[in-house]
Prior knowledge:
Shape: elongated
Protein name: Phage transcriptional regulator, RinA family
Low-confidence stretches: 44-48
Number of strands: 2
Helix content: 55-70%
Largest sheet: 2 strands, antiparallel
Number of domains: 1
Amino acid sequence: xxxxxxxxxxxxxxxxxxxxxxxxxxxxxxxxxxxxxxxxxxxxxxxxxxxxxxxxxxxxxxxxxxxxxxxxxxxxxxxxxxxxxxxxxxxxxxxxxxxxxxxxxxxxxxxxxxxxxxxxxxxxxxxxxxxxxxxxxxxxxxxxxxxxxx
Length: 150
């Protein structure tokens, strides 16, 4: 990350997406199961496709589909690993917060309560205070423990 502002923005994105991580991971696991059990690629057509290379090498359509299928499964597995690593980083970082700050982060980012609702109904403060407080907690406490993994 180039600047502190960019890092804070990226960490905020991770925090906002935290509550959906399990759903995304389960969806990707389901997609892997579907792809692994998709037998259409194994019973493909026997027609060969001619490669555009001067050697006139032929590539089976079935081989091509199986290769694409395996590549997609590997891509999904990498995405699952990244999601789970991000979740672990957030869980670990949250341990350094005191109870009040942890509750604030959970309300603001995990429960996605708007700053105005937090200011008006929960903390009885100005809206700008909510923005400043969330940025300060991220910058001064969480940023040290959360690394952006992509």
